[in-house]
Design a protein that fits this description.
Helix content is about 35%, strand content about 30%. By secondary structure, the chain is of the alpha/beta class.
Amino acid sequence: MNSTPVPGPARAFPAVWWRRATARAATLRTPAVDRALAASGARIAPVLDVITPLGRLLAGISVLGWVLGLAFGWQEAKVAALMGTLLLVLAIGFILGRSIYSVTLDLNRTRVAVGDRAVGGIDVSNASARQLAPSVMELPVGRAVARFRVPRLTAGQTHQDLFTIPTARRAVLLVGPVRTVRQDPFGLLRRAVRWTGAVELFVHPVTTALDGASAGFIRDLEGVPTRDLSDSDVSFHALRDYVPGDDLRHVHWKSTARTGTMMVRQFEETRRSHIALSLSTAATDYLEPGDFELAVSVAASIGRQAIAEQRKLDVLTQTGPLRTDSGRRLLDDLTRVQAADGCAALATLSRTTADAVPNASVAFLITGPGTTAAQLRAAAMHVPLGVRALAIRCGGSLETGRSGIGELTVLSLGALDDLGLLLRKAAA
């Protein structure tokens, strides 16, 4: 007679033990226990932060050496563990001590253009009543770290260090925080104390000045008439018969008296100057990193000129709109813009811009030499009728010139200095 085997205690015990242990641990997790764990973690974290990766490796080897030496009686393991422990104990002496400083980080300007000098200074004062030993201070600048040696300071004495930050490329650099560092000669322990906060340094893109003649491509500075008729505007077009509901203020009484039929004025709708600027951030549209930087500079130059002339402006990229309420904020946002893979096509960006800025009078499509004529044609199809569309292809390998694809004016730009001349040609 066959019978189904019943799991014995040896098989059932691990699963039962695990369930019981899990349930018991769950009962111990009370709010008080959670608060105690959080408090202990907050106290332990600074201690662990002092140990460098090399120090953690040495500590692990020392622990392993003690375990192997005591368990198997290996004298070599005990000696290695003893040496590692002594090194860690000696390293503690180098990071002990307390210095009381008053530190001020001052940047002359927090916004500079590429190529300009960003100058700053650090003032370190002894805020204690005793003499402080020499120390080393670190100043992170982006991914780099600058180090300053602070001499011995008596009570109330101040030491100043000046520094210059290179601005070879467009970026947002995080400067600071200033910190003092104590470290042993072997690099096992490292203790840093922060004295200031961090400051953002905007390295704006290079721009070129566009005077009134260069910006003359905007055809409706004061509002130009279109072929769309309106019942009320500023550009008079013709007279027509009165229709119930028309505004009586637009009745032309002289014509009404002469013809015996009530006549009202018909106007042409005007469109105020409103620039829509689409900057492509798709990496596939550019052949070199410098091509994208040129495109950003073109967008910054046109946008800055439009804001200076108090024109309506909207700037969009594949990641969303940029702030255009002031030139500084526009340049700040353009400083953060980066080319990326997987962005939407230029045609999609053009359609998004047309939906977001339906009343635009001039539409710019700024892209790189990697954009084909077919892609430009597809992007121009989303520009509304009556809106002048200009595409600017930016690339160091391009020759400055002008061409056309249907109603789209295509401008090729090889150098930023040629932008003013190119726009004057487009306005001709």
